Amino acid sequence: MDLGEFRNLIAAVRGEIGKAVQGQDAIIDLVLISIFAGGHCLVEGPPGTAKTLLARSVSAAMALQYRRIQFTPDLMPGDVLGVNLFNFQTNQFHLTKGPVFTDILLADEINRAPPKTQSALLQAMNERMVTLDGTDYSLGPDFFVLATQNPIEQQGTYPLPEAQLDRFLFKLVVDFPSRDTEIAILSKHATQALKSDLRNAGIRPLVTSAALAEGRALIDAIHLDSTILTYIVDLVRATRSDPDILYGASTRAADAVASAVRVRAAFEGRDYGLPDDVQALLVPALRHRIVLSPSAEIDGRTPDEVLRNIMNRVDAPR
C-alpha cells in the first residue's frame, strides 16, 4: 500500500461511516486519526447526537472486535477488567476476561462510574495491557477506547481525573446538526422500517488489522520538519504561560499533536506535515488538557477560545 492507496482507503471508510452518521464529517475524521495514531477519543455532547452510533459505525467499518461497557455508579473494576475465578473441578484459578479485552471499546457515559472504576482503564489505555493478580495480559496493538460523556446532566456523575483525560488523544465536542442535516436524517429514516438498526445501513468492513498495520507503517515514514516540531512545542509551551490558563499542556500533549499531524498528512496523501495540520488538530488535542484560570472562567471564556487566541499569537512557520 502506498500513500495514494491509503488516501483512497480512508476516503472509502469515511463514506461507509457516513451511511449511518450524517453531518459529523469533522468528528469522523478525528476519530479515524486517533485510531491510526494509536490514541483514544473522548466524545462529549448532549443526548441524541449520535455519539454511540458513531462508535458502532466506526467499528462496523473495521473488521475488528467491538464491545461496549455501559458505565453506571455501581460498576466495579472487575466488571471492566475481569476476575480470576477458582474452578473447584480443576483446583485452579481461571481468568474470566472482562469487556476491555477487545479491539474497539465503547465506554458509554464514562463519567457515571466512580473514580475507582474509571481508573481501571488507565493502564489499558496507556500501555495496552491489563495486570490481574500480578500477571500481565496484552490487549493488542489495535486496542482503541471511544468514551462518551453527557455534559448536561451532572447529578450522579464523576468528573474524569486529569491523569485519565491526558490519556485521550482528542476530546471531541458533538453539537446538534444543522437544520438541513436534521431534515436529511429524518427523510432517510422515514423510508426505513421503524425498528431498523445499524446493520441495515450496509456499512462494509474495509479496515482489517493488517490494513491498520500497513497504514501505521506508512505513517511512521511521514517526515515532520524541525520548523513544524518547533511550532508545536511553542504552542504547547504558550499554554503554560498564558494568564487565562492555570495549568498548561504537558510534553505528552505535544507528542500527541505531532503524532496526529503525521496521520492527517498521510490521510491527505502527503509524506510531510504542514502548519495547517497543527492548527486543525491543536484544539481537539489540548482542550481537555488545560485548566482555565478562575478569572477566565468568571469572564466566561472557553478552552477552545483561549487556545485559538494562542494560535493567533504564535507565528506559524512559512
Automatic annotation (TrEMBL):
Region forming the signal peptide:
none
Entry coiled-coil feature ranges? none
Q: Where is the AAA+ ATPase domain?
A: 37-178
- Report the Pfam families cross-referenced here: AAA_3, AAA_lid_2
List the InterPro entries. Answer: AAA+_ATPase, ATPase_AAA-3, CbbQ/NirQ/NorQ/GpvN, ChlI/MoxR_AAA_lid, P-loop_NTPase
Q: Which SUPFAM superfamilies match?
A: P-loop containing nucleoside triphosphate hydrolases
Protein's recorded name = MoxR family ATPase
Organism name: Rhizobium changzhiense
